[in-house]
């Protein structure tokens, strides 16, 4: 049987194998990561961050129900920091300040809920991104592309979706 933990890069791995590789290679920048080794952890961590945000919103709703009582519509349930004033009514300064305080408090709560996950996965996320670039025969320095707002992030997204190239073997040693 093929040992999927030592194959460079491990093609078409399951989510469990991808997560095991993600954490076991947390500080390894040599080598390559296949698309599945990159995208499964990305998908799972995105779901984890979404769960942290949902938990933070429920916690905030339980602690401060008055902030949610003014606008209990469907839009407010989806995005609690959005307040839609009644038709024709202008938002008062007090309402603006209350909305800002609520927004700030919700952002802080969300950060507190998601911070442990972000800290625990920062190094593995960085190194799997470098190894993914190696698989398409690019240097890890291409991650600097993310410093360019929007266009750089879209460029990185496209690069991470490209199929691997045999020339990327040069990064294995």
From TrEMBL:
Any matching Pfam family? DUF805
Q: Where does the source fall among the domains of life?
A: Bacteria
Q: Which InterPro entries match?
A: DUF805 (IPR008523)
Q: Fetch the PANTHER family from UniProt.
A: INNER MEMBRANE PROTEIN YHAH-RELATED, INNER MEMBRANE PROTEIN-RELATED-RELATED
The name this protein goes by in its record = DUF805 domain-containing protein
Q: In which organism is this protein found?
A: Rothia endophytica
- Lineage from the top down? Bacteria, Bacillati, Actinomycetota, Actinomycetes, Micrococcales
């Amino acid at each position: 049987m093929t040992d999927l933990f030592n194959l460079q890069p491990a093609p078409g791995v399951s989510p469990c194998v991808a997560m095991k590789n993600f954490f076991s290679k947390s500080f390894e920048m040599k080598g390559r990561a296949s698309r599945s080794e990159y995208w499964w952890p990305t998908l799972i961590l995105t779901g984890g961050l979404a769960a942290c945000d949902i938990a933070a919103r429920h916690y905030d709703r339980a602690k401060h129900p008055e902030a949610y009582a003014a606008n209990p519509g469907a839009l407010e349930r989806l995005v609690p920091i959005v307040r839609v004033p009644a038709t024709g009514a202008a938002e008062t300064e007090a309402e603006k300040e209350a909305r800002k305080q609520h927004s700030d408090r919700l952002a802080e709560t969300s950060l507190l809920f998601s911070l442990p996950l972000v800290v625990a996965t920062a190094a593995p996320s960085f190194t799997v991104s470098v190894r993914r670039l190696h698989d398409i025969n690019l240097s890890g320095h291409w991650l600097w592309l993310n410093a360019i707002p929007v266009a750089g992030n879209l460029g990185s997204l496209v690069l991470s979706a490209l199929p691997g190239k045999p020339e990327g073997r040069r990064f294995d040693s």
